[in-house]
Amino acid sequence: MLEKLQDNSGKILFVVVLIFISFLGYNLYEAPVQGLENKFIYLLKTYGYIILFAWSILEGEVGLIMAGLLSHSGHMNLYLAIFVAGLGGFAGDQIYFYIGRFNKAYVHKNFKGQRRKFALAHLLLIKYGWPIIFIQRYMYGMRTIIPISIGLTRYSAKMFAFINLISAWCWAAITIVPAWYFGEEILIVLGWVKDHWYFAAPFAIIISGSIVYYFHKVTQKKEKNFES
């Protein structure tokens, strides 16, 4: 029974995510307020910690920033938000780790196009050791690859879990606390963006595109250095 669960962990995860999205969609539709924006706000206020936990599993900083703003407005407790977000980030990487640990055939079959990144992740673990587990959340293009790659090795599951948990809480605090502290300023900017979206949208696309391009080039450079 346990082996079957391990072999189908990827499918089980997909079903769980689908059920959660359906749950949110239903509650969004049934929210007792008018307007899509008000419905989203109602959903965040009602199921804030649940959404934050699930969002953090996917390691989305946007969800943490929202938690910081909700903490600033008094709809969330700052310390509880950091705790929950950290647990979500921890759970997400543990899932990826155990996908690598118990589903090696699945990983080799479905991640053929990521072989160079897996090789790079393995090299980084050998070269830097445990610090690479601590900082992998900040490495664009490697956030999923590194936990899976470590799971493929004989690295201690207990050591990975311990470092992963500390790292996840630090990641949550580093993202949520500034959003909470500068909440008023962020809300003013968001209000301006909402009223002047035609100016903000092109600027946001250029900035986000530049960031993605930069980290993509950095990752490619590391891969080339590894091959040479």
Structural notes for this entry:
It is a single chain. With 228 residues, this protein is mostly helical. It is 83% helix and 0% strand. It is built from twelve helices and no strands. α5 packs across α9 and α7 (115-128) crosses α9 (145-152). The protein starts with a helix and ends with a helix. The relative contact order is 0.11.
In short:
The protein is mostly helical. Helix content is 83%, strand content 0%.
Residue windows where pLDDT falls under 50 for at least 5 positions: none
Number of strands: 0
| Strand-residue proportion | under 5%
Number of helices: 12
Sheet with most strands: none
Task: Please report the distance between the alpha carbons of the first and last residues.
Answer: 45 Å
Helical proportion? over 70%
Radius of gyration, Cα only, in angstroms?
19 Å
Offer a few descriptive terms.
228 residues, mainly alpha, 83% helix, globular
Outline the secondary-structure elements:
Elements: H1 2-7, H2 9-30, H3 36-57, H4 61-72, H5 78-102, H6 104-110, H7 115-128, H8 131-135, H9 145-152, H10 157-181, H11 183-195, H12 197-227
